[in-house]
């Protein structure tokens, strides 16, 4: 944490030698340190310039750990992708009829094989996984990476000093990259467009999380009709709904107790479908190997025309869950995900699809239940149980991913505050959001009961999958051009190749909007509306606070008592400003009969990085002269950080940081005065490492703490006095001062703005989690004052 001890002197690398070289090094070091002394009251730029440790994000792990991570990733990352053989062929050839079984099945299989090789393998495994944000993946990680390189989101100068903030640019600055960066920074339209694309990708992931449980569980339970042909489809739907309700009801208990079973269960599933596929290939028609020749894709389209193009909506389901390889990257490593996909997942999927195709050439009438019909009779029920287990695990993975995505959206100020419960003390990333859980459950049950089969669910599923991939392709291309700075032809080749493939699939699934494809569009539109309204209202409220912050001259005129009575105690004034004193403070000192002896303006800030190391989380700065006893504290979190500390623990950390800051401030003043004394004597050579150690030990502190005539009023407050007052106030008690504001549009605003702010945004604020709950503030220590923000 900033201000802990004197790490600067310890890390300066100054030896105990008294030779001229060491003396010069000591003087130069002092000069460098003194340049970083605070030059104005209301700034945090110099205060956050040092961070105790700068860790590397290069993932270098032992072979054993790597294979352990690869094994675990099978259970978390590949559940959705692994269960797609349950419904791909039935969704491709809808209606249970194949015009030309021998040729069309080979053509469809060729499309499946090359789609798996191009999208998951070439695009994600070889390229997209490299575009990670310090080991984190997903749509928000890409947006965060771009935001840090170009000033797209509001970034404070201190945020750029974070060890996790640093970018690794592999080549020199190119004019093209700088031109793109400048265009993004100077165009409000492009900034909003980039945010809109990111939010669309996020909404589609939530749509994926809604549709995956429905289609996976319904496809798995549909096996009952194969074993019991007389069973009605309504029975299958009811059983599926029961399984789904149980699944969502258990979310509040978390998955930590059963998560260790996920990887073995999914590994068993992949081996099972691989062996069944190999069995069908050995007994079936060898003509399926013709699918290795991509020429059969051309023949498939030539022979079937529009029907072949429409069938792409079913083919694309073979890559559902591919985005999870990137979105769940933070739990594993790039190499582990690559190893799991290339050694287990891809070979087993190729065997599974090849085996089903071989079976269907001989039995084309079974295309509606291709997977279960191709299972050898003696092992049907064991495979049915494994398939149901795999479907539940795939659903669980997407539900958990939805929770994580919504948490990230809230952190980035793009979603209303919700109740986030931590289901595991060992794994902070395992969370449960009740509102999102029950919303997804209601939608999933409604879709299962409404559609009753996987055909229309597949149409809806395809849109969510392909739209997310299109967003990823666009953002990665921008990263290639602007951050990686690779050859423009390579970047455009990536965009054109994968963009063309994904747009072809997107055009096909959009053709089926009336046949279930409208579901993710309506869901995404609703979520996007909520996200954009919340983001817009929050941004307007922040702009109001910046415009109406109190000038420091006004604070100075009040004097050290702030124009009121100062009583013992520590007051934490929560606000959203990193500079200046918030306008709400004027109401506190106006309406309260007294104010606390020590005031700390606390700003909880989410920065565009995945995680902020604990040592770098809190930044402290003094406001005004020492006699005012006012401080500013910025508490920084990344978009994946979980705020699990209790109020008591947070208070302890905050007081510790304040104490460290006061000690460091006194030490820096001693160093400054030591140099001034040496300079006055015209003997800089005295400023040796020996002098540094004597200053650090406090030898000169007693003499140098006396105020100079030129010092500002109140600067003579000693380190001991400040620490003693802080400890006394801590023992007296801590009070949280919070502004409770009502946001309204100005009277001269246009109608649409009034509608958005006064009704939609106000509705979201009233019904979201209250700020005091989000900040874990004890009710008995909370003091609120109302204020209206006219934006």
TrEMBL record:
<keyword id="KW-0406">Ion transport</keyword>
<feature type="transmembrane region" description="Helical">
    <location>
        <begin position="427"/>
        <end position="449"/>
    </location>
</feature>
<keyword id="KW-1133">Transmembrane helix</keyword>
<dbReference type="InterPro" id="IPR053951">
    <property type="entry name" value="K_trans_N"/>
</dbReference>
<feature type="transmembrane region" description="Helical">
    <location>
        <begin position="339"/>
        <end position="359"/>
    </location>
</feature>
<feature type="compositionally biased region" description="Polar residues">
    <location>
        <begin position="7"/>
        <end position="16"/>
    </location>
</feature>
<keyword id="KW-0630">Potassium</keyword>
<keyword id="KW-0812">Transmembrane</keyword>
<feature type="transmembrane region" description="Helical">
    <location>
        <begin position="379"/>
        <end position="406"/>
    </location>
</feature>
<dbReference type="InterPro" id="IPR003855">
    <property type="entry name" value="K+_transporter"/>
</dbReference>
<dbReference type="GO" id="GO:0015079">
    <property type="term" value="F:potassium ion transmembrane transporter activity"/>
</dbReference>
<feature type="domain" description="K+ potassium transporter C-terminal">
    <location>
        <begin position="569"/>
        <end position="789"/>
    </location>
</feature>
<keyword id="KW-0633">Potassium transport</keyword>
<protein>
    <recommendedName>
        <fullName>Potassium transporter</fullName>
    </recommendedName>
</protein>
<feature type="transmembrane region" description="Helical">
    <location>
        <begin position="517"/>
        <end position="534"/>
    </location>
</feature>
<feature type="transmembrane region" description="Helical">
    <location>
        <begin position="193"/>
        <end position="221"/>
    </location>
</feature>
<comment type="function">
    <text>Potassium transporter.</text>
</comment>
<dbReference type="Pfam" id="PF02705">
    <property type="entry name" value="K_trans"/>
</dbReference>
<dbReference type="GO" id="GO:0016020">
    <property type="term" value="C:membrane"/>
</dbReference>
<keyword id="KW-0472">Membrane</keyword>
<feature type="transmembrane region" description="Helical">
    <location>
        <begin position="105"/>
        <end position="126"/>
    </location>
</feature>
<feature type="region of interest" description="Disordered">
    <location>
        <begin position="1"/>
        <end position="24"/>
    </location>
</feature>
<feature type="transmembrane region" description="Helical">
    <location>
        <begin position="233"/>
        <end position="251"/>
    </location>
</feature>
<dbReference type="Pfam" id="PF22776">
    <property type="entry name" value="K_trans_C"/>
</dbReference>
<comment type="similarity">
    <text>Belongs to the HAK/KUP transporter (TC 2.A.72.3) family.</text>
</comment>
<feature type="transmembrane region" description="Helical">
    <location>
        <begin position="307"/>
        <end position="327"/>
    </location>
</feature>
<dbReference type="GO" id="GO:0006813">
    <property type="term" value="P:potassium ion transport"/>
</dbReference>
<feature type="transmembrane region" description="Helical">
    <location>
        <begin position="258"/>
        <end position="279"/>
    </location>
</feature>
<feature type="transmembrane region" description="Helical">
    <location>
        <begin position="488"/>
        <end position="511"/>
    </location>
</feature>
<feature type="transmembrane region" description="Helical">
    <location>
        <begin position="461"/>
        <end position="481"/>
    </location>
</feature>
<dbReference type="InterPro" id="IPR053952">
    <property type="entry name" value="K_trans_C"/>
</dbReference>
<feature type="domain" description="K+ potassium transporter integral membrane">
    <location>
        <begin position="69"/>
        <end position="555"/>
    </location>
</feature>
<keyword id="KW-0813">Transport</keyword>
<feature type="transmembrane region" description="Helical">
    <location>
        <begin position="594"/>
        <end position="612"/>
    </location>
</feature>
